[in-house]
Prior knowledge:
Strand order of the largest sheet: 1-2
Distance between the termini: 60 Å
Order of helices and strands: EEHHHHHHHH
Strand content: under 5%
Number of helices: 8
Number of strands: 2
Structural class: mainly alpha
Amino acid sequence: MSTQDWVWRAPPGWPSPPEGWAPPAGWRPSPDWPPPPADWVYWVPATAQPRRGLVLETWFVQLAFLVPGVVSAVDVLAAHVGGAGAITRFPTIVPGHPLANLILGIVTYLQVAAVVPLALLLLSRTGQTPAVLGLTRPGWARDVWPGLGLAAAGYGVVVLVAIAFTPLLDGHKGLFNQVPVGHVPKYYVIYGLAVAAVTSVTEETLVSGYLLTRLDQLGWNPRWALALSLTLRTSYHVYYGLGFLLTIPVGYFLTRSFQKHRRLMRPIVGHFLYDAVLITISVLAS
């Protein structure tokens, strides 16, 4: 293995080695360092891109993903503040044809994930293939059960935060915004599950898999990378008003999960379960 083509990648919590370093024969990590994830990949292909190129690429990918989402979120929040009452989570495209609206709505929502293939292609060009990122077929032990735990942890913290915010909510309901589902048939649960799937794959791939990988390559401190990823993740939820604060706990758990284990499928499963339960309850209650 040539160190000109491959670079050593330290596991989370280990000090970053000097540029071009390779472990000598007989080298052992310090017993004080945290154990690496079981599936950690130590050697990854060296990127041929200069640092400036990676910085610009990261900016462009994040802007392409975030700008449409943030603008839409601001529009919804402005409509709420202005008293508009026609905005619902499942908009009507063809009046009087709910099944057609379901199909067209799912197809239309796919545009949210338009940047995902581009991000994965750019990552693969620097050696981070979907397999390296942990974007593989989900396994029960390594993805589904941990993902369920992430979703449950998110719900648990949100309940505690919601209880703490109850006095503020009672006196200032205008500060919080919940986009209503509207009156839709029960089979719109299918719509909700499709939205949850697209959202989870898109957000976790771009603000965890792509962004955290690039920030790691650029030498960012993991804590600052976590803070930036969480800030960007929260930015397109401003349409909730102060309710956006309730998205932070699960966002933290999902982001931290990828940082720690480098398995993208685990937070995707957790995110999907979290959103799917909320949307399903909203549809069935409508």
